User: What shape does this take?
Amino acid sequence: MPPAISSASFFIGKGGGDLISFGSGQPDLPPPQQIFEAQRRFKTFRYGPVQGEEKLRAALAKEYPGARAEEFVVTNGASEALDLLLRAAATRSGKVLLPKPYYYSYPHNVRLAGMTPKYYRLRDGKIDFDEFEAQAKGCRVALINSPGNPTGSVQDIAVLKKIEAFARRTGTILISDEIYKDLIYERENYPMKGETVCTINSFSKTYAMCGLRVGYVHTKDKDLMAKMVEIKSHTSMNTNVLAQEMAYEALQTPKRHIAQQMKVWRSRRDYLYESMVGLGLDLWKPEGAFYVFPKFKDPTRAMHDLFYRYHMITYNGAWFGDPSRLRFSYALDLAKIAKGMERLEAFLNKEYRRYT
Amino acid sequence: MPPAISSASFFIGKGGGDLISFGSGQPDLPPPQQIFEAQRRFKTFRYGPVQGEEKLRAALAKEYPGARAEEFVVTNGASEALDLLLRAAATRSGKVLLPKPYYYSYPHNVRLAGMTPKYYRLRDGKIDFDEFEAQAKGCRVALINSPGNPTGSVQDIAVLKKIEAFARRTGTILISDEIYKDLIYERENYPMKGETVCTINSFSKTYAMCGLRVGYVHTKDKDLMAKMVEIKSHTSMNTNVLAQEMAYEALQTPKRHIAQQMKVWRSRRDYLYESMVGLGLDLWKPEGAFYVFPKFKDPTRAMHDLFYRYHMITYNGAWFGDPSRLRFSYALDLAKIAKGMERLEAFLNKEYRRYT
Assistant: This one.
């Protein structure tokens, strides 16, 4: 069961007042102040272009080397971006290569587009290129997600370049989900390039605008772009014009806004990772996004015990295709993280010792 | 070619300064003032419930006799409402019954959900129940649209009750697209009722909020509702939370706001209809929405001549499944409608006489 459904019905109204949530995948930091001004100023609620406002697409083009406004379609978040892209790329019983573990919606999105998911296994969160290439045989589309959810992993540039070359050589449509591109601790983002590359991004994570639902696809593939715009003209029309104006304003935010927030994210990442290592958990150090993904014996039981006895929300790795782990988001403040780690320590010293 | 694509590429940048558009399907009247206050006030951009804000759904429930908040899902306009509903109802090679003429997206939406469209022919815009019933055989889903686009027709209550009974008797999923429900000149809207009825509506037409993209589905079918919410959790997540707040505020608008706008719509409808009758055109008097649908010899040629020689935008009936007519929207002020009718008269007295 996907967490969007299961967690809602499972967690809501049960936790009591001191519930600490390591569940949510949304930033708790504030959005840039400028978007509130755009919000107040905007007054025109007529239909906009289905592809997205020209002004916003032109501003996005400046963020991608060599890109042009017509290579973007603005969508209802990264979710619609992926849905639209897969519907546009769909062929009857086509196969789509996904990482495993994966963001929990991916396999559903593939099936909803009438295609079949196939998987390449990540090794401690990292892509093994040989495995990727072997599994990609016969796939019309392949997807990578760096920084990754639920892994927090950032892929090595050498591997990303091999994947670019693979896509160029084979003509495979390569979806690069880069929605955490501004949340990388170790280096700058490496934006994937190529004629068949379709980059998905969103304003949700970088600018804390989740509920406003603004995302986009960037691609140089004109046929795919035309198909996406045509499908969207029937399935949702323009993305909310007010939210697009706010997204445009968010893009004007000085980069130091992002840099300042990165300090906060990094300190949380370091604290949480080191705490878990100190508690003897088996996990890798995430280089991006805001998740850690430690191993547990019987994660489903651990998730339930942590919730019912220690009032902590965590997400089951099984929802993401890895039944040996739990996902902890660190989109919450350090004091709460610290309190959560005390509870986790108590859990490990009590219930968990009795697990087989 | 659907007008969302074709009209954009065809019309934009060609018309010059005195272009008169009878093309657009969006109200030119202002939205209620209250929504601007909601716009300024709202400050929380976190993810919302995928099904839609509880507050908005509770307010919607009051608009439908015997309805409850959990029977609604709030969508990115009526477009996503229909897309989501068809995807939730889809069976492999299922058939969906549509009116002909139809809103131009319907057949595309059906195919995008992996199903096949089938048609019942309207007679001068009206449903012939025997024809509807005969064609509905073997269809999993049937759709009605009253008031209709492009017809402007409002269906008789006696016929609507027969269709309700048919749906009850056969278990057919009945989609009732009522997005023009507040634009009826002759009577109150008759909201379709029944266990298998799925009503689609939106804030676009009643409240002139097209670009904000808020629509919804109302249904008592719990399985369909659960499927729609699950699909939406993967394909777009919550509808824009700010737009939902504005939609909630729009619902609080006194009904006299709608009544006042109806006077404007009615005077335009009467003026345009009587002008066209006076010019000898063959059309029925529309009872709802804001379209007239007159017959033309060679409508494609007429549309081009009207555009290039008389600077008037009209939409080709062929885009809506009726190649014998042109659609004129009257979402523009009376002075422009009058000027357009002068041009139409000149066209009819000159070019059009040479048509065969």
Q: What stands out?
A: The first strand of chain B starts at residue 20 and ends at 21. Residues 34-251 of chain B form a domain with the Aspartate Aminotransferase; domain 2 fold (CATH 3.40.640.10).
